[in-house]
Amino acid sequence: MKKYQVLILGGGTAGITTAAQLLRKQADLKVAIMEPSEKHYYQPAWTLVGAGTYKLSDTERDEKDLIPKGAVWIRAFAEEIDPDNNLVSTSEGGQIEYENLVVATGVQYNWNVIPGLADSIGTRSITSNYDKRYAPYTWESLQHFKQGNALFTQPHTPIKCGGAPQKIMYMAEHYFRKQGKREAANVIFATPGTVIFGVQPFKAALQKIVKERNIHTFFYHKLVEIRPEAKEAVYQVTQPDHIPDVKDPINQKLGIRIEPDGSVVIPFEFLHTAPPQSAPDFIKNSLLSKRDDPFGFVEVDKHTLQHLRYPNVFSIGDVAGTPNAKTGAAVRKQAPVLVENLLKFRQEHQGNAAYDGYSSCPIVTGYGKMLLAEFDYDNNAAKTVIVDTSRPRWDMWILKKYLLPWFYWNRMLKGKG
Known about the structure:
about 425 residues; FAD/NAD(P)-binding domain; 2 domains; 7-stranded mixed beta sheet; globular
């Protein structure tokens, strides 16, 4: 049985960043990263791949080239965690012992949660930029779109990068205009959420865009089924006063109907969605998950990122049970906090570094324009740049397309920022 001082589950953004920062602080620390994948992807660019303005190949690197110097790469799946005995069982049949565990696995996609989605994704212009297999298909489908409803939706579960379903919608709407197809396209956003965005002043800016571009919004709409042959999406409306009026001329134009059980049906020619998401099953079924969380995220203090019941365990990124938006920007702010508190714990001290819930959502609003929403746990704007990013700007587009990818590969994953 091999033993490590720090075992990190997951070699994605959170895992690599944490390992790099740990080893920069303490080079002799015995660190291992358990990650089965041979490739590593810069996923934030997949929105741009879906809009035909970025190459999928440019988002890919070899995992071996990103493992920090001094860390051991364990190429295996974790299958079971025994936090009472500080053990992780692997897909290879072995066990790894740890002194400290960092859970950084990211989320699991559960396509089967929505009936009809798993069997139809990647066909009939049903797509998702959340998966590298389908981001190029998004672009292919947009090019083939001629007329009808272009529907952008999302599940009722937590999702990483909650703004992504909107980003591709704004890009698609702009693309339709550039191609002279806009009059033939009904752009629709249907969401289980209550507002277009929860933080001011970004909410007001996006509401203005939606109104000016004649985007049809449907809130409190929980996606419950996709009927691929009929090209229909079925919703339960969770607030009765948000049930669409089928006699309304606009809703008639969109072809919306109400079924006998009260379900709302929206037909589509193009559909983009996010997959339902949760913690991976082996986390969900472990003693580390939150007891009252059906999605199984790791139970940590939202400020220190330390487990509430197993103090030698920490978690970071999308799998952590913290109420922030799940983005790479959150990981960038979480990692120094986790590293400081973990190293203090190893010195038998209580770490007091605190994460304030900072996250950011770069929302592209068209080709060449983006606004940058930054906010904290209390949904207060948390500005980190000197310019006004609450309105779409060309320089923010440059940030999204060129500067952030460079920063990711050359600074963040090397523990330098």
